[in-house]
Design brief:
16% strand; 11 helices; six-stranded parallel beta sheet; elongated; alpha/beta
Length: 356
């Protein structure tokens, strides 16, 4: 490596006011920092650019050398890029707000990139920010949740040594941390509630095949139905996209199968299911009970107020912030998936099964 000035590194370093540098030319060189820290110039470069492969002790030696010389890092690497599939769904807006609030005390700022998961725009966002020295990235239910999605954004982050983590599903390649809601448990909570109300013909408006959270909720639903001795549950699962229309189309198919209750994979799908039920002249919950997923804040004001399973937004955001800060500091983190416990919120869209 050449004896280049630290001030010309990608991360850059700005001298504190009143401090003199050790270089006759007025700038501190990699070799000078390396000598003071007792490490190689390559190690100094890795520490400055927040790359992996440096032990905590060695990193501290380099940081101490930089402090002795009187240089401080720029504010350039404060950004955490959050890739999210739009903000129309309240859950994603709540998660982004919570992540920003939990990153802020650490001097980090979240920049939200609403993109179609796995699209060229996802990589475009990463390309636009990676050269500015972003500290880290979060895939929030983005391409990390889709089977066979284009994962070039992930590959680009890895090639640049930028740490990242995934929420609600991980990539098939790579070993980045994954922090998820326990979707299997979420489905079980919904089935538990309906079963206790006497329902046995329980259908599911599920999300699309190949979407990790949707697949897990279906698996949890089928396991819960099977555990209660309810046969043929696989015939009562209808998949569609996460939307009001998707819920309406799926519910129409389920109503033809004489279900008395519906578990939806999102609150939007649940509201679509209620629309389909009412269009048939049926009532919620007197004729058909409905449960949503995500527990949006507006559900108290729907007609009827919607029962829903909530994702633990605060716990997810706190775990994301804590894990990212650890990764940025080049300290080890767990790479097995962390599952957060969902909670069930009963409102007026569920009731005991109607007897003949």
């Amino acid at each position: 490596m050449t004896d280049a000035s630290v001030s010309k590194l990608p991360d850059g370093l700005n001298p504190r006011p009143g401090k003199k540098t050790r270089s006759p030319a007025g700038s501190v060189k990699l070799s000078e920092v390396a000598t003071l820290a007792g490490v190689s110039e390559a190690t100094v470069s890795r520490v400055l650019n927040r790359k992996y492969g440096v032990s905590p002790n060695t990193r501290e030696q380099v940081e101490d050398a930089l402090r002795q010389i009187g240089y401080e890092r720029p504010r350039k690497g404060e950004i955490v890029l959050v890739l999210v599939p739009g903000l129309a769904t309240p859950f994603f807006g709540e998660m982004c707000n919570a992540i920003e609030a939990d990153l802020s005390p650490h001097g980090l700022r979240a920049v939200i990139g609403p993109v179609l998961p796995g699209s060229v725009y996802e990589r475009d966002y990463v390309e636009a920010f990676v050269d500015t020295g972003i500290a880290a990235a979060i895939f929030l239910s983005s391409s990390n949740t889709l089977q066979n999605a284009d994962d070039s954004a992930r590959a680009l982050l890895e090639s640049r040594g930028v740490p990242y983590l995934c929420v609600n599903g991980g990539f098939a390649e790579g070993d980045a941390p994954v922090i998820s809601t326990d979707d299997w448990r979420a489905a079980e909570l919904a089935v538990d509630h309906l079963y206790e109300l006497g329902h046995r013909r329980i259908g599911m408006c599920a999300g699309p095949l190949g979407n990790t959270p949707a697949d897990r909720r279906v698996e949890g639903f089928l396991n819960s139905m099977d555990a209660r001795g309810i046969e043929g549950a696989e015939d009562l699962v209808v998949r569609y996209h996460y939307s009001v229309d998707g819920g309406r189309y799926a519910a129409d198919a389920l109503l033809d199968l004489d279900v008395t209750a519906i578990v939806a994979s999102s609150d939007d799908m649940a509201l679509g299911a209620i629309r389909a039920i009412k269009r048939r002249g049926l009532r919620v919950p007197e004729d058909v009970s409905v449960i949503g997923y995500n527990n949006s804040s507006i559900l108290e004001f729907t007609d009827p107020p919607l029962s829903s399973v909530a994702q633990p937004v605060e716990h997810l955001a706190q775990a994301c912030a804590r894990t990212l800060v650890t990764m940025i500091q080049n300290r080890p983190v767990r790479t097995d998936e962390m599952l957060m416990e969902p909670t069930f919120h009963a409102r007026q869209s569920t009731a005991p099964v109607r007897t003949a």
